[in-house]
Amino acid sequence: MKPRKIVLLSCIAFLAVVCLIQAILAGKNPVKTLKFDGSFDQILIAKNGSEINLTLDGSDWYVGNDDFIANQSDINSITNNLKEIKVLDTVGRLSSDDFNARWDLNEEKAITVKALKAGSEVRSIRVGKASSTGSQTYLTVGNSKDVYLVSGNLVSLFSKTEDSLKSKQIFTLNEAAVSEVQVALAKSSWGVTKAAPVDGEVTWAFTGSAEKEEADAAKISAWIRQIISLSASSWLPDNQALPKTKEASVEISGSEGKTTVEIYSEKDGDKTKYIAVSSKTKHKAELSESNAKKYIKDFSELKK
Predict the structure, then answer these.
(1) Which residue, 132, 131, 113, is CA-closest to 123?
(2) Phi and psi of 289, rounded to 5°?
(3) What is d(CA 179, CA 194) in angstroms, rounded to the nearest whole number?
(4) Which of 39, 73, 82, 90 is the most buried (most CB within 10 A)?
(5) DSSP reduced 3-state for 277
(6) Secondary structure tally for the chain: helices H, strands E
């Protein structure tokens, strides 16, 4: 074989090896995941001297000290991002406070998040600013001075206010468990009770002032589905006085027990403001008009 041909074949073989190595390196996942496999029952989120306290009681997370359940979606995001931190790159190390300000990891701007178990800290992160794309965040983990660029905009997640973390859900009941509803309005009191099924279909009968009317089972079933779940548009201070006008008092009964809802109203400029109290929470809630009117119901809308 001629020397020129040998050199050419050698070059081709070398380039093939280089290409293979590059392909292998390109196929590797650059993301490093910092996992925490343990559990925690408290999360403290602190910034600028203010602190949000999240505590686990049974299967529910609570916000603050006023018995407000936390939004499940927010809790899932918070706990998941504490347990799995996807590191894209190490971009530097902490130094002086002025130096750390380039990543918003200085004392003034950083968000400190601590996860605790039985009062002892088990994981902590220090959240800085989001990247220019808004889809990554600069942070540190534990006592390490390494500054990581991690996946996700954790600034928006951990910057949420205490009020925004509170679930607006007042209650959710099982439709099949409901057997009776009683409604007291300003001018009438009526109710519906579940009757014997007809051809396997649920039927309802009126009670109270509507007792002699013929109930429309389809309309009543649709209405029941509306009132078994109630959400607040906002929570009100516990010491806020209730309006004088009570629009409706509703009692939903069944195998899950009794749930009561009282709807009050007052004028707020050109609009009407609706406030609810329920046996399912000690807090007063403002309702949207559409939510309130599900309970301010006249039986005439449900008869045949």
Answers:
(1) 113
(2) -60, -40
(3) 5
(4) 82
(5) strand
(6) 7, 20
pLDDT tens for residues 256-286?
Answer: 999 999 999 999 999 999 999 999 999 999 9
pTM listed for this prediction: 0.81
pLDDT at 173 over 50: yes
Give the chain's end-to-end CA distance (angstroms, integer). 101
Q: In whole angstroms, how large is the CA radius of gyration of the chain?
A: 30
Cβ pair 87, 94 in contact under 8 A: no
- The token duo for 17 is 């090896």
Q: Residue 173: which residues within 8 A CB-CB, separation 6 or more?
A: 228, 229, 252, 254, 256, 259
Chain centre distance of CA 238 = 22
Both tokens of residue 30?
Answer: 């650059």
How far apart are alpha carbons 34 and 45 in whole angstroms? 20
